[in-house]
Design a protein that fits this description.
disordered N terminus
Length: 152
């Protein structure tokens, strides 16, 4: 990853200053990167991007692949991802007209990164299940859990 503030324009030649209005900082309250991150990492956004990374799909095929998403939520999600430049929407000449979705180059890059995250999570499901079970046992028997301390 290019760092937390990679979304900045190149400074003018000979200029040592960067226009702070164009520096992305996801930790800043009003940073546009937060909205983009929300669209990409929402439950349905993440799954739609990764599914489209497997192949271009028509709406209903994508809805079947992303099991559990409603038609409305998938439509809203795809509109947001298209607006952000991650997804292409193509109307195919047919009767009735059909719509196919595909990833842009930017979408393909983010889908590849999300695929790595999904693979990591899938590989560690049993570790998380074990941790949850241990945590739930200590909560249910009334015994105090050790409090974690924050590092300064």
């Amino acid at each position: 990853m290019g760092g937390m503030s990679a979304a900045q324009p190149a400074p003018e030649p000979g200029s040592d200053e960067v226009d702070q209005a164009f520096v992305a900082d996801v930790f800043a309250r009003d940073c546009a990167s937060r909205d983009i991150l929300q669209n990409v990492t929402s439950r349905w956004g993440l799954l739609a991007l990764v599914a489209l990374g497997e192949s271009d799909m028509r709406f209903n095929a994508l809805r079947r692949r992303v099991d559990g998403v409603s038609e409305r939520m998938l439509s809203v999600t795809l509109q947001a991802l298209e607006r952000d430049g991650f997804v292409n929407r193509s109307v195919l000449q047919a009767i009735p007209p059909r719509v196919e979705y595909s990833l842009t180059d930017l979408g393909a890059e983010v889908a590849a990164r999300l695929t790595g995250l999904i693979e990591f999570v899938e590989d560690h499901v049993s570790d998380v299940a074990e941790s949850r079970a241990s945590h739930d046992v200590s909560d249910s028997d009334g015994s105090p859990r050790a409090h974690r301390t924050q590092k300064s």
